[in-house]
Amino acid sequence: MTLLVEAQDLARHYTVRRGLWRSPGTVRALDGVSLAIAGGTTLAVVGESGSGKSTLARAVTMIEAPTAGTLRIDGVDVGQADRAALARLRTRVQMVFQNPYASLNPRKSIAALLGEPLAIQRATLSARARRTAAREALARVGLGSAALDRYPHMFSGGQRQRIAIARALMLAPALVVADEPVAALDVSIQAQVLNLLMDLKDSSGIAYLFITHNLEVVRHIADEVAVMYFGRIVERAAKRTLFEAPRHPYTQVLLAATPTLAPRRTPTPPRGEPPSPLAPPAGCAFHGRCPLAVDRCRVEVPALRQVGETWVACHLAG
Amino acid sequence: MALLDIEGLSVAFGRPDSPIRAVDGVDLAIEPGETVGLVGESGSGKSVTALAVMGLVDPPGRVVARRIAFAGRDLAALTPAARRAIVGKDIAMIFQDPLAALDPCYTVAFQIGEALRRHGTPDERRSARRRRARALELLAQVEIPDARARLDAWPHQLSGGMAQRVMIAIAIACKPRLLIADEPTTALDVTVQAQVLELLARLTREHGMALLLISHDLAVVAQSVSRVAVLYAGQVMEEGRVPAIFASPRHPYTRALIDALPEHNVGRARLAALPGVVPSASARPPGCLLAPRCPRVRERCRIELPRPAHGEGSVLRCFYPLVPRGAVAADMGT
Q: Which of B218, B219, B273 sits opposite A195 (nearest CB)?
């Protein structure tokens, strides 16, 4: 079976100016990330701000070309594809953004918003057919057809996120990239939207690349989990393996820092804060905060390697 | 005597003939040194409650209360000047977005000094050198690494976690007896959140300071306070001790909030979601505000508004509450 998405050593570096007299710096937002997503499965990517998870989402949705590495979708190398092939690939991958207040154009009706992907990608379709398709998509996300002629400001945050999901479904994609899709929603609404995403996966076999900072959400929706820190994947494993036996010290720190309802001993908070992206530390990026760091960690960047059923980038794992 | 004693607090916005009730009859008491949480979804009135205590609700917002007392003094009866002498000194507040709360045009040392210049000891009010020394002490207290170098830093040079520590330093500069923290960790990463919560816990413990922690995140509250009030659409639905209130909630809304957490659905295919949305503050249902969404709703709930029933260390506003775990099964409502 060909994999839906296959990324090899993806990198995205940005040049940042640091004032008139200083030389420009380089931010390695994404620094050699490899991953694979099979059809109909969910890969959750977790990490804190600045870990590169949104840059990864932008690379996989082909919004931004990576500066290095290869990305294959449906077995087609995106970097080598011609315009026609790219246009076809873009229908296979759709995106849902974090803030439904910003991702829906306030001046367009819901029918126009949902019809837009069809107007671009299926130009032969009549306006009536687009409207019918929009109505069907709304029904799939649990909204009535009365919504068609309304505007985004007339909906609550949860309803807007449903509309954004409906828009992502219009071209029947194989992969939906969801960047923090429930982070802006209240907990009771968050549960409704997560349920919807899982129902859609069951009914139409969509795969998700699910970007989030919330480990509890990951525990619920993921099949596989990749933990990112500072532009790299530090651990990748099946969900159960990752939660039961986290191998990277950063994953362990993240799990311990996530608050839960159940009372427990005072958690030991991790030391320090993530390093500045303009002054990356030598060796393992986590060594300054790692409780286990040894001399080797300060010098040598650990490669991702297999330990048991887990892929982990740590000198000490295993 | 309670340090902070609120009775029948209501805050309304909009025109008097069609008021939008953001807070609707909230009672809340905080003892000296006690840590209390206020949880609720957006629009539940948790922030407006805090702003009303601080006297920061501007017209056209209208604050009405039977009593808002701090250490026995009725805040509403004080002159604005007398109230300002308390707010910022005995009651301090920190906000969700620390980088928006700090003034970008002044250094860290200056902004800490500002609080001392107004509310500090006579010595601190007179001497800039004394204020600077105290600012350094405070930065060390909130565990800012390399505190001396940070004194002359500008807010844009601080990370989010660092900026929140500076805000906390400003808040505790005059040794307040009550700290109100409004979503203090919502804008922070989870590892930094753990550090800031730990810091708040240490400060309340060491200084005997009371804490009112406002958050939408049940888990954050569960880890940080000893008592919780659950707000919905401007009313307290349930209040009780931690962890009992989370282990066996009595109100269907508290139950629903807990059930919606992924943490409580491990291994299940779907989350238990509460249907519908919070009623808007201008279009309220006539009976219980939760009635349109409540799984246990009956006829009476749609007509009549339940009154809060006070128990020992607990409050409950429901006609048909859940039976607490371990109690003899008896339907309380019928």
A: B273
